[in-house]
Amino acid sequence: MPDARIMRRLGGAPPLHVALIVAGLTCAIAAAGLTVRAFAADPRVTIANFTFSPGDLTVPVGTTVVFDNDDDIPHTVVATDRSFRSQALDTTDEFRVTLTKAGEIDYFCSLHPRMTGKIIVTP
Known about the structure:
Blueprint: H1 4-10, H2 16-31, E1 44-48, E2 51-53, E3 56-60, E4 64-69, E5 78-79, E6 94-98, E7 103-108, E8 116-122
Parallel strand pairs: 1-4, 3-8
Antiparallel strand pairs: 1-2, 4-6, 5-7, 7-8
């Protein structure tokens, strides 16, 4: 089932025929003895109530992290080491950054500097 953000953007649940097609394909794949390899979604940091959540995130090198602004006002995401900086993110906007080297990256909102977070990038 799609997450709440997708449901909001789509305006509700998918039509019944789409759900039935997906269910039928799933059964056909299982009956054929095939496996479907699932791919993990990019890790997300949600901005809400003047907070980054999770506040600390650990990911491997090469990961793309997505920041979603679910707050009612604009926010930014700025790395203290200057490795990335978003523009002002309005409500429902997102910012993506791919992390290419190991280490710790502290970040904050330049509009609300008390909002802080950390990403730990492992080799």
